[in-house]
Design a protein that fits this description.
- The complex is a heterodimer of chains A (about 375) and B (about 260).
- By secondary structure, chain A is an alpha+beta fold.
- In chain A, about 25% of the residues lie in helices and about 35% in strands.
- A 6-stranded mixed beta sheet of chain A has the order 6-7-8-3-9-10, with helices on both faces. In chain A, strands 13-12-11-14-20 form a 5-stranded antiparallel beta sheet, with no helix packed on it. Chain A has a 5-stranded antiparallel beta sheet with strand order 15-19-16-17-18, with no helix packed on it.
- In chain A, helix 2 crosses helix 3.
- Chain A starts with 17 loop residues before the first strand and ends in a 7-residue tail after the last strand.
- Chain B is an all-alpha fold and about 260 residues long.
- In chain B, about 75% of the residues lie in helices and about 0% in strands.
- The relative contact order of chain B is 0.15.
- The chains are: A alpha+beta (about 375), B mainly alpha (about 260).
- At the A-B interface, strand 6 and helix 2 of A face helix 8 and helix 9 of B.
Chain lengths: ~375, ~260
Amino acid sequence: MNVSGMNVSGMNVSGRLLDVRHVWKSYTPDVFAVRDVNFTLEPGAFLTLLGPSGSGKTSTLMMVAGFEAPTEGEIRVGGRDVAGLPAEKRNFGVVFQGYALFPHMSVLDNVEFALRMRKVGRGDRRRQAMAMLDRVGLAAFAHRRPRELSGGQQQRVALARALVFEPDALLLDEPLGALDRKLREQLQAEIKDIQRRVGISILFVTHDQDEAMTMSDQIAVMADGQVVQIGTPAEVYQHPNTAFVAGFLGETNLLPVVVRGVENGHAVVRFEDGTTGRARMPRGGRPPASGASGFVSIRPERLRFLGDGASSDHSTDGVVGGHVFLGRHARSTVRALGQALIVSSLDPQRSETVRIGWDTDDAQLLAPEGPD
Amino acid sequence: MAPRSLGLTLAVAPIVFFLLLPSLIIIPMALTKGQLIQFPPQWISIHAFTDYLSDPQWMRSTLVSFQVSAFAVLVGGVTGTCAALALHGKTFAGKSLLTGLVLAPIVIPLIVLALGSYLVFAPLRLVGTWPGIGLVHALLVTPYVFISAQTSLTAELNPALVRSARSLGAGRWPVFRHVIWPAIRPGVLSGCVMGFAVSFDEVVVALFLQGPDTVTLPVRMFTAIQFELTPKIAASASLFILLATLALVAQGLLARRRPA
């Protein structure tokens, strides 16, 4: 299985295919922190494990890195199972929260460290480390101590240190977790930029949905030790499989419905007001059976106020409860279908009674949660 | 640190004075002109110091003391550090029992330890040798190094550093050398300084295990005070005060160099 030549988006890629297959982890008998996790990280791709604390995302990363052994399952790198190898025998660059740079070593010694461990000669490793520092724009800081650098510079040192030995992938464990918003955004951009230039594949762990959306090619949403949905940021956001995913990735409207059947690949549902409409079937999980009650998720920005002559696949009447102006858009509360709906729009309706509508593709039927 | 109030200072001053007086009185007593140790001393002469420095028996004892304590710190430093490393970050049944065992030499009565080691060492021909005394002293040094190594492992060592090093390809020994040791070195060294001080003035074990050629300095002083009453005792005691002061200064420096 040779995939190292694979090209994700037209750039040079490095790294090898990482395949996590049916991985389970229990720390105490019968309590599983990670349950049957599966995902594939293509060379050059950016995959994020997104979930709240305790969802198993960090445990999963620690198993890939080799700090923890899976109770069951395979972790394959380029087709070879590495689950039995200790961290020091694997070939991943790991970046931790706070960066964990060696405080008593210079920046250059930090970056050289992995090459030194690999018995690369003094001259060679110095040259390679300097080239890597140059690449992240820190060649002038080679002889400083880590604590003399800014947070952004420290991150670049951490990335340089993790990249210099040409790892199979970069593993990032909430590297930006403790920083304020503005710095976070700047550092997110830097990580993406370095990834683009080096072409390395990245497995990223975060609990921040915005971070996951802006950075990733693919997001694996985790809850209770399981991957509940995996897909591109747009797919996961617009077409969540479950109420948990819908809620975790931003605000949504959950409309209670009764499922009537399936027609042309769409679910036919009856809304609270008795009208019938269509919704997208969930991609994963067990779809609700005909006659069962469930929920349809519609994002606030997919609901629109229908003016004269405007139409949509489905519409309903409502009463405006209030508006909140948020700068880029406004957030309105509308009572319709027996509940309060959130509508996000550029120019909210001033009238009290409104008609709001949405398209079938924006109405996502959710799979029920709980054990399969 | 500034005193909180005048009242507190007045209350503490006599206590400090009382604690320091016996130590400070030694130096003027060493400067006596007389041939006997006495108070108040007849000032002023340094003959006690020159007598001490030119007496081969007293010099021999000083050397033995340094040998014993250096050996004890070397052995106890390694075992204390190893014990702390081995127990760090692990939980298992019997861990606190094992910790208690390492710390036991602090609480076991010295007379029991001395008698026991005499009985064990006699058939091994270790009685009357400086390594014999040093080995038992190493037992006393170990808990001091253990405690300070354990404290620095929890307080000074960021576990993410160990993981970083491992992910970069470092096995056990390189992780220790490049990550753990730099973090715990000040703590271990200050434990060693403490241990040296404990070993250097230990009398009971050294008395039991002494031989004609292995009388440590405190034992020599103890014997001399009973039979000779020479001011050399006060002169050599001044050496102890000097060493203790150096140890305190060294500890202060080590503590300050510790990363914030």
